[in-house]
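FW: tagging you since you asked about this chain on Friday. Here's the raw sequence from the shared folder, copied in full. Didn't touch anything.
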Amino acid sequence: MDRSERLGKESIGNLLIQFSIPAVIGMLVNSLYIIIDRIFIGRVVGALAISGVSLTFPIGIIIMGFAMLIGVGGSACISIRLGQNRKDEAEKILGNSFILLIVISICVTILASIFINPILTSFGASENTIEYARQFISIIVYGSVIQSVGFGLNNIIRAEGAPKKAMMTALIGAPVNILLDYLFICVLGFKIRGAAVATVISQTITCIWVLSYFLGNHSLLKLKKENFKLEKNIVLSIVSIGMSPFAMQVAASAVNIVLNKSLAMYGGDLAIGAMGIINGIATLFLMPIFGINQGSQPIIGFNYGANKYKRVKKALFLACIVGSLISVLGFLVVNIAPTALVQLFNKNDENLTNITVHGLKMYMSMFAIVGFQIVSSNYFQAIGKAKISMFLGLSRQVIILIPMLIILPHMFKLNGVWMAGPVSDFTASIITAIFLFFEVKKLNRKDDGDFKEENRKMSLDCAK
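HL: got it, structure written out here
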């Protein structure tokens, strides 16, 4: 049986296990890039260094956003193409995605390099933190092409039905990053620059691995020169579906800027460092949820494209259950052992520990429902309803959160900053539940083989 055909025939539960476990492991290992860097920086360089690195998050988020714009958009279109048994068109999407990843990331690198100092200043960098931030991000931006190509094409490996291969990407890169962090920071004394160099080298290795897969004999889809010529309809299809995760990344970047400014105003440099640690801890639990998204997306996309709506509903239900269990686990761990988690990053600064523990418990107080919200938003993306997916993602990260970050600190000072996250999580989850309720009602009216014309129209973004 062809690998892509399995998506329409095998048990949904088995498929979700086969696709999601490698994706979850891969995302967990990927989270080590962020977490291990911060642990080494916090323990060896110091608290202000964590604050400096935290100030660079908006730039890193934007770089990743462009990779997701093409990688996620391309993989969703490819999943639908394979479900429609149109392999040649899927390969055209792969070739166009590859070129787009290179061109866009080169442009981002040039712009970030030119304007790095004013960017960091506008993000809230102080005299105490700007040099740390500059040393770190000036190296990271030069590796953005490598990062974007590796991450973007890895999404497509999963979309063509090879989740274990996609998992290997993370399993190769993260251990290398950890070893190089220790070598460059602890042994050679390169400090914060060492963390950045370690990240770029490990990303280079994973990028080579991904490219070798598509250029070798084991991939279903091949990178071919004749598919490198950009086609307007394909580019628009990729961008239209990838716009949702891209917009959410841009939103996350904007939120980080507003967040850092509020933290600097009401808590100073240490509060920015505290938020960096909180983000690291949250990432540990968010990444597995994103892994569930990555694992379920090709299953949902393929079966939606093949008009197998009962299988779509089952995949959605199981993904929501697993995503919710992960977020509940994160909520429990944060409330049971907050101090132990925080002291992984820095044991020497008691003030930083106290600020972070307090902020962590408040900021993640609604984390138990985040899994449902994230998985449900991803469902709409997987079936090609990019606008709804974008709105639901933005509702949590921008539409509600940014106003809360502006309003609540005026009333509650630093506590208001910590409160903004849970208020946004709760409200966005309610909105998402309403949208999902009506979507499931629509699916309940469909039997396999019906509404083909409606499905064709919903897939136009990827069918042109």
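FW: Residues 232-305 form the longest helix (74 residues).
HL: agreed, and The two ends are 28 Å apart (CA to CA).
FW: great, closing this out.
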